[in-house]
Design a protein that fits this description.
single chain; 309 residues; mainly alpha; two-stranded antiparallel ribbon; two-stranded antiparallel sheet; 68% helix; rod-shaped
Length: 309
Amino acid sequence: MSVSLSAGGFYGRSAASMNALTQRAEVLQTQVSTGRKLQAPSDDPVAYQRLQSLRTAGANDVAFGANVKIAQSVLAQADSTLGSIGEQLQKANELVVQAGNGTLSADAKKAIATQLKDVLSSIVGLANARDARGAPLFGGSEVLAAGQAETPAVTQVASGALAFAAGQPTAIPIGDGQTVQPSVAAGDVLKLKGADGKAGRDLGEVLTAMVATLEAGGAPSTDDVADLSAIAAQNTQAQASVGARAVRVDLQAAYFTQVSTDRETARSDMEDVDVTTAITELQKTMTILSATQASFSKLSSLSLFDYIR
């Protein structure tokens, strides 16, 4: 009876041991073939849930990352275009200084007037540039009704004054709860803000007044010169603001890069298997299993006579 019980225990322990070794070998073989530790949520529920959270966060950051690239592109274009507008305004200032020379002939003043018209036309053209998305670079954020045409950022009316699209450029989401306005409204650059809070003259009105004066043989007024300088200063401030936003967006891009690297490291630690280590363990497990099977086979073949001998 004791022999039977001992034999039963032996068979049970041996079977359990070989079964455990076989299961471990199968797990290691799967890990080696797939390169992953986790094959199902039941393998490690906590790690699996954490991986799902990492994937969700990664997908969100991919979307924000795409927006960051768009913001970088638009901000760079805005900065470059404002720089070109600044060059045109500098040219206008230089022409105005020339026009103040009392020895200029009437024809020379008319030539300067023609050049100022060209400067205004160039600036209007630059202000109506479109960004990489096809939207007005310096336009507002108006909501178009069905069939309604988009309002240009800047339109020069018959009087020479400029009309501007309403609103500000649409902000771009660049992170959780973070947005950036990738440009500035043309009206904030080319239209003066009065000290009383009311809008002052715009560049079109200023240059048109100068042109009329020069064509009549006069020289630009002090007020016109001051307003032109003030508009140039506004342009410089707008460019500085755009540059500051570009730095902020670049920092956000760097943040996403670092977070992505950290997230990938965390994911790899939980999910990826060290193939070399897994192969070594698999070989060790197979060796133990083979030895266990051989021992079981040898011992189980012994006869009762061998036990009592």
